[in-house]
Amino acid sequence: MPKLKPTQTEEASRIVRACITGNMELHAVNEDLLATKMGVTKRTVQNRHDRPENFTLGELWALSRTIKLTPIQAASIVLGRSLTSGEIKEFLML
Q1: What is the pTM of this model?
Q2: From first to last of its 94 residues, what are the pLDDT tens digits of the chain?
Q3: Which of 8, 22, 85, 94 matches a 20 to 30 Å C-alpha distance to 71?
Q4: How many CB atoms lie within 10 A of CB 9?
Q5: What is the CATH number of domain 8-93?
Q6: Could you write out the three-class secondary structure of the chain?
Q7: CA distances from 30 to 33, 42, 46, 59, 93 (A)
């Protein structure tokens, strides 16, 4: 049986999870610390990781400060896709 292509929502969720998980690991931020900084419970952080489309804007702001997202990562999260090299060049030229 052929492998099904992930939906657009699942693709976007994977991008968000990759950015968050990578930066949490890079900056040694665990779920407990992240929950405290975001003002939510650890379970809420886990739920948001599983279903990133449920993040509120305030939660994303706190998350981005805590795990030190780059502007490119933040843009990828908002757009739900990886940025192309042309988009990154354009962004840097602004």
Answers
A1: 0.84
A2: 788 898 999 999 999 999 999 999 999 999 999 999 999 999 999 999 999 999 999 999 999 999 999 999 999 999 999 888 998 888 888 7
A3: 8
A4: 12
A5: 1.10.260
A6: CCCCCCCHHHHHHHHHHHHHHHHHHHCCCCHHHHHHHHCCCHHHHHHHHHCHHHCCHHHHHHHHHHHCCCHHHHHHHHHCCCCCHHHHHHHHHC
A7: 6, 10, 11, 16, 35
- Residue 76 Cα distances to 25, 35, 45, 79, 87, angstroms: 18, 22, 19, 5, 11
* 88 CA to centre of own chain: 18
* Cα torsion through 7, 12, 14, 20, rounded to 10: -160
Q: Where are the domains of the chain?
A: 8-93
